[in-house]
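We store sequence with structure; for instance:
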Amino acid sequence: MGLQIPLAWIPCDNPQRKFFPHLFARGYDAAHEFFHSAHAIFDLIMKTKLNRRTFLKKSAGLLAAFAASSDPGGTSFAREYPDIAVVEGESPANQTRKAVEILGGMKTFVQRGNRVVILPNAEWRYPGAVVNPAIAIEVARLCGEAGAGSITITTNYGIGRWGSDVVQELQAAGVKIKVPSHPKDYRIVSVPQGRVRKEVTILREALEHDVLIDIPIFKDHYGARISGSIKNLMGFNWGSIEFHQGQEYLHQAIADLASVIRPHLCVVDATRILVENGPGGPGRTIRPKKVYAGRDMVALDALCCPLLDLKPADVPHIMHLEAAGHGRADRSRMRIVQVRV
């Protein structure tokens, strides 16, 4: 394919890069190929006499590429999306839809016929300790609109705290609610990078899916400092009480578990969050009125830390995963879009 020159090496004042940014979104090689083809066609025009039909035939491919490069929605060249969307507002459902839209829309994650598994934090009953169900309902609707073949919501703890009305709305959105009730619902999985957990017993759905969507609420946790996208994966884990062998062990066990479960999308409820006596409450809450969404659970948890007056370095399981190459905790390396609706 030839030498690939990093985009960062191309001067920002390069006139071609300035006027054709969407071409360069794919990198220098693709852009160079486009301009090389353009030069060849125009050179041919100058040196030969072309009739109308020959000219159109020769230039058709170039014009198609040009149209794609000039149109951000063009499909011939990749469009870059941010790592994280942060949407502030008063409607969790609308905020969720907007956050996913900023990331490229649910079709960026879910293809027609995909098996989608959704893991919500629906365990607790006190305000600020449980995900607003409107967020999960909207995620399910988006998956259905994207053409998901099946949508399953499951967690060790069930979703009974949300109530029967929520269950009906989820079912109306095409969701199957799976309540684990048998050892066959679980798999024992080895943890190749595990420091304290060499294997974990997790729900089959944690691995048997095409798309995994993690929906935590960001909040205080007495043992893990925070409960967010990473910690929420314990909702798949059988025997989580074994993780609680002191804070150092707990943080490493959380990281070990997260090393074998990789969500494709995380949608974080930070509309109203528990800031003390977590994870279950009751306790003092605040209202950031935000929904976060992104692909990198480490980056999301790191970005949310200031909501609890913490830094990522204050949360060992975040740093363990970053050190192992499973995500980024440095905000300066994140592409973030923040909007209000």
About this structure: The CA atoms of residues 8 and 27 lie 9 Å apart. The mean pLDDT is 84.
